[in-house]
Amino acid sequence: MMAKIALACDSAADIPKEAVAAHNIHVLPLTVIFGEEALKEGVDISVEAFYERVQAEETLPTTSQPPLGEFVALYEQLAEEGYEDVIFVTLAATISGTNQTAQTAATMVDGIRVHVFDSQIATYPEGFYVLEAAQMIEQGQDVPAILERLESIRTRGIEAYFMVDDLNHLHRGGRLTGAQAFIGSLLRMKPLLSFENSGIHPKEKIRTKKKAIQRLKEIFAEKYTKDKPIRMAALHAHSPEDAEAFKAWVNDVYPEVDIITTSIGPVIGTHVGTGTVAIVWYEK
After folding, report:
1. Backbone phi, then psi, for 51, in 5-degree steps?
2. H or E segment to which residue 171 belongs
3. Which residues is 277 bridged to in the sheet?
4. In this structure, are residues 6 and 143 in contact, taking their beta carbons and an 8 Å threshold?
5. Per-residue pLDDT for 86 more than 60?
6. From 115, 132, 170, 278, which residue has the greatest number of CB atoms within 10 Å?
7. First CA to last CA distance, the chain
């Protein structure tokens, strides 16, 4: 008889609600904090409401991970429902304590085996791992095979490049690596960054948004090889027209590529800021 495997992640994976429901994914929400008001991402505040509020207020919120008790409660609930294992995918341990908390909670429950996987990234690229695991669970594959596949993707790496309107959000939160000189010369610039080696790194300084998005196209064209099928997404922080335009370009130039567009959620949106556009992909 096949083991019953549950799948869980934190809300920073930014998986659309339709996919969460379709694949029975258990999502623990992170929190955005406006002053004294703490709001659970995707529960107390939607993506649309978040960006509307950010535009209306001068001060960006802060963020926090789920408390230890919520991990324990989830694991206990899954055990009661008859699951023997749970695979929990988290955002990068280098940028959040969520992974460590998930592991700590695993030592506090009986009756279920907990496998915590560090995606070493965030937003929809984290979701890539979750959806890959969901597909394998539905195919009847076991935990070792699923973890091996996730580790294989992580070893090869997920390509992630993005343009931000304002680098100060990332700098303020301490999420940007080696950026002091970069920041000092950013007057009227649209910086391009990459997410690699579990961190965010400056790559290029470009003067306009239009040129920055064109550069994203050039980067993809330089790196993509048609002999390797990929799964891709164009992400945006309250800038859907930019993501859709990029998707249309990919559909036209590379019709064989599987690409979607989706939003960057409130927690990651707090750090990258409104107007961010990203392209992410990995080999299937």
Report:
1. -70, -30
2. helix 168-172
3. 163, 236
4. no
5. yes
6. 278
7. 29
How confident is the model over 264-284, as pLDDT tens digits? Answer: 999 999 988 889 999 999 998
Provide the 10 A C-beta neighbour count for residue 192: 20
Distance (Å, whole) CA 202 – CA 199:
10
Report the distance separating Cα 33 and Cα 36, nearest Å: 7
Structure tokens at 283: 């080999």
For residue 101, give every residue at least 6 positions away whose Cβ sits within 8 Å of its Cβ, in sequence order, or none: 65, 66, 67, 68, 71
Kindly list the distances between the CA atom of residue 153 and the CA atoms of 64, 156, 271, in Å, as whole numbers in the listed order: 27, 5, 25
Q: Residue 165: pLDDT above 80?
A: no
Confidence of residue 191 (pLDDT cuts 50, 70, 90): confident
CB proximity list for 144: less than 8 A, separation 6 or greater = none
Cβ-count burial of 171 within 10 angstroms (0-12 exposed, 13-18 middle, 19+ buried)?
Answer: middle
- Cα–Cα distance measured from residue 252 to residue 239, given in angstroms and rounded to the nearest whole number: 21
SS3 content of the chain, % helix, strand, coil (to 5): 40, 25, 30
Extract the tokens encoding 165.
């309107």
For residues 140 and 134, is the Cβ–Cβ distance under 8 A? no
Residue 183 has pLDDT above 80, yes or no: no
List the one residue out of 51, 23, 44 whose CA is nearest residue 139: 23
Q: Confirm if 41 and 9 have CB atoms less than 8 A apart.
A: no
Q: Would residue 104 be called left, alpha or beta, if left means φ above 0 and alpha means ψ between -120 and 50 degrees? A: alpha
Token pair of 96, please? 């959040």
> For residue 240, what are its two tokens?
């859907």
* Amino acid letter for position 165: D
Q: SS3 string of 7-49?
A: EEEEHHHCCCHHHHHHCCEEEECCEEEECCEEEEECCCECHHH
In the block, tokens 């961190």 appear at: 199
